[in-house]
Design a protein that fits this description.
With about 240 residues, this protein is mostly helical. The longest helix is centred in the N-terminal third of the chain and has 19 residues, at about 60-75. The termini are far apart. A two-stranded antiparallel ribbon has the order 1-2. It has helices spanning about 25-30, 60-75, 80-90, 115-125, 135-150, 170-180, 185-195, 205, 215-230, and strands at about 105, 110, 155-160, 160.
Amino acid sequence: MRGAPVPGVSGIFPPPVPGALSFRDVLEKLAPTRPPVARLGSGGVLPAPRPPMRPARSAPAAKATLAASIRSAANTAGVDSALSVAVARAESNLDPHARSTDGRSVGTFQMTAATATEMRRRIAAHAVARPAGPDDVALGVGYLRYLHDVFGRSARLAPGVRTVPVADADERRRFAVAAFNAGEGRVARAQARAAAAGGDPTRFADVRPYLPPITQRYVDRVADYARAEGTRPPTA
């Protein structure tokens, strides 16, 4: 034994008593239990908890459901259903979450916030009947209905800008589709330019050269989609 003896301590430890708690046992019982430590991910960050797995819905099934909703809205609005689906396909490929590269156009029909707001105002004022379905579909089909009406009469859009009424229904569809892409004012100005050049402002073929090339291609693409939609086998 090293050092001087301490009074009252013999320097000899008593033998352990069977079943008695040791000092270490007491400390372990008093220490709070700790939850298991999660492993750190890359960068030393705890991984986010994973949500429960849900069966994924196939893209074709989701598009088929959306197309059916558009057809229903078109029927209530008095708009050609094949043309309505074709416009939606050209705009977003039937993706309700689509967004333009500049972020200004969103949804199935790629409507801007300004156009959507104006359509809500027209619907509230009963200038346009609201088609059936959710807003994303109803506003797009409603806008198409509005454009059909605008080119079916002489409508003043701005000082010095007025549409020329298009009597033929097929021709009017082409004007409405062009206006969906370029705006009704630009199409009305193209009508005026065609008339000034001696053309027929109610024939899309005569007005077409005065529209932007992107709009000309857009009208052709929608026409192709509408033909394909028209040959779609009827659902049960």
